[in-house]
Structures
1.
Amino acid sequence: MNAKQAAGYRAAEWVKDGMTVGLGTGSTAYYAIERIGQRVAEGLRIRAIATSNASEELALKYHIPIIQAAEVDRLDLAIDGADEVDPQMALIKGGGGALLREKLVAKASDRFIVIADSNKVVPHLGAFKLPIELVPFCYEWTLKGLKDRYNVPFEMRQRDGGLYVTDNGNYIADASFGQINDPGRLSDELKATTGVVEHGLFVGIAHTVVIGHEDGSTDVKETTDV
């Protein structure tokens, strides 16, 4: 069992019969969905909302019932990965491009469980490029405004020779901020920027962080401040 699998499988233990669960996106969330699917095959009864088309396909493969947001007001819990985790349990997410749906699901959950391998634990956020989801209309103006304000490198994410398009039909700019000393402030600034749909700073959202190690062990950190 590798570190990602250890974290994903450990987090799946929080899922109980009758729960409505948010399913994350990415290589670590894959293992959580896999283990939940195994438990469904063993008789666990849940409903789920997936944060990406890929995760929904994986959930359906494991016969996890998928519902729509209109069917529920809140989720019991959500499990998702992270690209960086700092000591205050602030995160950078969105390397897989699903940051908008991931944040919607995380904030609608009574417990948001973050899963990651030990390499994702950092003293300060920012070594990983910060994904910022942009409305396609006039995105060039939005991007120029961000560059002028922050004076750091921004790159439009690419795929197959063109601009990367999210499941929501938006673009992503990846920003190289370097060390982010005040993620809460930057989060608020970016969110207030016209043309920015969402960004990958998850501050004050995580309730539980599960860190997996290559020997198959896990560490769990929890907060009651959210």
2.
Amino acid sequence: MTKTFRPIVYLCNSGTGDTEQYCRFALKQGQIPLSPLSIMTAVQDEDLKTHISSVLLGKCNKLWVFGDTITAGLKAEFNVAKRRRQPIRYFDSFMNEVKKYD
């Protein structure tokens, strides 16, 4: 395997999609996926979830959003990425790129 630059992409979804499939999709697109959904399900405190998301998103080059449902948590992640001027791409649950939600 050749060592080429692969950006880290933060994958978020409302928890209704197939996270493993989204990760495979990102890998095929030449990205390194970071999907914190499994971490977030263990955290009960909403402020801590927001903090963890912000820290992890700061390690990534961009944000990809999957699914058809936009939750308050997803909107918070959008806002962090926007403030940091990180590129955001939106996909439906079938991994078809769609128009921005916001």
3.
Amino acid sequence: MKRLIFGKTVMFAASLFLLLMPSMALAQGGQVKPGAPPVEQPLVSEGDFAVSLGAALAVTTTDDEVEAESQLGELGIAPRNGWIADYPVTPDVLIELQNSLVEATASGKLSLSKDEAQKRFNDVVAEFGLALKPFTADTIYEPTAASCENYPNPAMVEKSYTSEGVPVVTYYCPPPEYYNLYAWVPYPFWWSDLWFPGFFILNDFHRVVHRHRRVVVITNHFNDVRSHRVFRVDPVERFRGKTFAGIGVSRPKNFIQTGVPKGERTIFNTPGAQRVPAGGTPPPAVRGGERVSPVPRGGERIAPAPRGGERISPPSGGVRTSPPSGGVRVSPPSGGGRERR
């Protein structure tokens, strides 16, 4: 009798396992590989990053974004086009900051050793939930195509767009219906141990997020309330160095001029509330519990930012790029980008 009951129990458990196995497989297939970045890169404004970095480097103790950016900028620690308080810290911005930090220590402007400055910088990066690392030029990647077809878990990515909303910055190819909203920035980098040939960023974005009980604006639109003009930082042109300058930029004549005296401060680094256009707007969308505001409206004129008239696509096969350490060959992983072996 006991054997009969035991046998029925085993059969029931086996049947239940077979019934659940397809859904278990789907669940596993719909997840990002452990250690891979989320569909949307954590949104961090340059202003927030400057405040934390200034404190970590013992440059300033202020909570004022403009003051922190100015103190860092005087030491030569700034993105290539200067600090723009409400612009997001993207992979290229972060690595430009790291490079400028190395130069500041080498020149003696910053009274810290290179290793100590790098450690403090890494601590700030980790504080904001980023795992970005630069690539170096001492080895060569395996010539494997890096196109949208190579990015894994398309169903998971599309589900995120549907349930969470459209991400501002993502390392995964957007679903086809969203692709035209994005610019592709061909800037290779590491996220932890995964290599990505570049990232996608919305051509136009203006998001309001709540962090530590305060409002933070993440935008590439900036309103000059005096001239009623809205300037847009083009993500691809920012990467190329052909865009508006912010605080601490070197040789500002190489950048697009706003025509507004001290525009890098009065436009791009004034309090965020002054840059939100007046007038009625539709209810904001939501992504991950964050409030998202639409692109500025109200008839403001957007100042032109040159785009070069070309369409930039993800790189195809045969691209030769370098990982951060010697003798490493990589191949496409199951969770995004490319993985070290």
